[in-house]
Design brief:
305 residues, eight-stranded parallel β-sheet, single chain, binds zinc ion
């Protein structure tokens, strides 16, 4: 069973910026093939939850800058509509976890924007105001008895924000495959967590131009190791599609069908350990046609088509 949780505002970004609501318009025909739940307004207490994974100073700064359509960093423009879209995405993350906790076997896709995986505990950055998947992972582990959680991040960029938030925790396992070197410059193999989180971070950096079959083989091998060691009760996916060969922001060579293949592997992990519970969050993907084709194979695999 696959459902989509979407929202009434997708926001917008500055003209010419690669991360815009046009990305969601590009995938709308694909989303419409599946049952959708529409979020009309943010949860009134959503920022209380946001403050469990981000500093209050960061939340306040994002709110003030958004009100005046200011920048949070050189890559991260905002507007009042972006702020509203970010709060709706945070609300969707909470709702998705609560639905997954009630319904074994539930698979959810959240076409969230702006994306989230670069937002650290202290800092909005890299197009991201708040880290939606981190809020979901924290909510699941801390409040919904779904610990441990496995986050699988196949966006072409390293999810430095998600790694930062869980680096010292032993209840959320973070696995990222990403191009290296590339923005944001983190995600080396020796970064494996600290303290209670030691061994709970696994990075698979892939050089630019790596042949796609080789990259897929790396992914399968490491996902197998990671899932056997995490034994997750919930699987979350940072589904970025910017490792596609057509993407303008990176230099990897995946095809749309590869995202379907990775998704089937992740679904098998969820079925084996987590009663089939899986929630996927849209992260990057900046070529509209490649994004549409890749999301199509991802959702078909999530739906078991
Ligand atoms: Zn990305």
């Amino acid at each position: 069973m696959l459902r989509i949780i979407t929202s009434s505002t997708w926001g917008f970004a500055r003209l010419g910026h690669p991360e815009s609501a046009g990305r969601l318009e590009a995938i709308r025909p694909i989303l419409e093939k599946y049952p959708q739940e529409l979020l009309e307004s943010p949860h009134p207490n959503v920022l209380r939850h946001t403050a469990e994974v981000h500093s209050e100073r960061m939340v306040r700064r994002a709110e003030l800058r958004s009100a005046e359509s200011g920048d949070l960093d050189p890559d991260t423009p905002t507007s009042p509509a972006t702020w509203r879209a970010a709060l709706l995405a945070q609300t969707a993350a909470l709702l998705a976890v609560e639905e997954a906790a009630r319904e074994p076997g539930l698979r959810l896709f959240l076409p969230t924007r702006p994306p989230g995986h670069h937002a650290t505990r202290q800092q909005s950055m890299g197009f991201c105001l708040f880290n939606h998947i981190a809020l979901a992972a924290h909510h699941a582990a801390a409040h919904c008895a779904l610990s441990p959680v496995l986050v699988v991040d196949f966006d072409v960029h390293h999810g430095n924000g998600t790694q930062d938030i869980f680096y010292t925790r032993g209840d959320v396992f973070y696995f990222s495959m990403h191009q290296y070197p590339l923005y944001p410059g983190t995600g080396l193999a020796h970064e494996r967590g600290e303290g209670e989180g030691e061994g709970w971070t696994r990075n698979l950096p892939v050089p630019p131009g790596t042949p796609r079959r080789q990259q897929m083989a790396f992914f399968k091998e490491v996902l197998g190791e990671v899932s056997a060691s995490a034994r997750p009760r919930l699987v979350l996916v940072s589904a970025g599609f910017d490792a596609h060969r057509a993407d303008p922001l990176a230099n990897l060579l995946l095809e749309a069908e590869d995202f379907g293949e990775m998704t089937r592997e992740i679904v098998a992990v969820a079925d084996k350990y987590a009663d089939g519970r899986i929630i996927s969050f849209l992260e990057g993907g900046y070529d509209p046609a490649a994004l549409r084709e890749s999301v199509e194979t991802h959702l078909a695999a999530l739906a078991g088509d």
